[in-house]
């Protein structure tokens, strides 16, 4: 089984809550749910994390 790590960066946790006219209403959780569904179909072990850290 292949493993995939998705690392989402700063402020993506705000998707669906801020500036919906620009970024839409879909949340990061919605996106993770869709990606996990596809990963299952493809027999991929998906890890999905988000961090607002901007340092080294």
Automatic annotation (TrEMBL):
GO BP: aromatic amino acid family biosynthetic process; chorismate biosynthetic process; quinate catabolic process
Pathway(s) it belongs to: Metabolic intermediate biosynthesis; chorismate biosynthesis; chorismate from D-erythrose 4-phosphate and phosphoenolpyruvate: step 3/7
Keyword tags: Amino-acid biosynthesis, Aromatic amino acid biosynthesis, Lyase
EC code: 4.2.1.10
InterPro entries on file: DHquinase_II, DHquinase_II_CS, DHquinase_II_sf
Catalytic activity reported: 3-dehydroquinate = 3-dehydroshikimate + H2O
Keyword Lipid metabolism: no
Cited Gene3D superfamilies: Dehydroquinase, class II
Single GO molecular function: 3-dehydroquinate dehydratase activity
Subunit structure: Homododecamer.
Annotated family: Belongs to the type-II 3-dehydroquinase family.
Stated name of the protein: 3-dehydroquinate dehydratase
């Amino acid at each position: 089984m292949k493993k995939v790590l998705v690392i989402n960066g700063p402020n993506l946790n705000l998707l669906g809550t801020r500036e919906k006219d620009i970024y839409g209403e879909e949340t990061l959780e919605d996106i993770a749910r869709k990606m996990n569904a596809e990963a299952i179909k493809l027999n991929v072990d998906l890890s999905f994390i988000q961090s607002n850290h901007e340092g080294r």
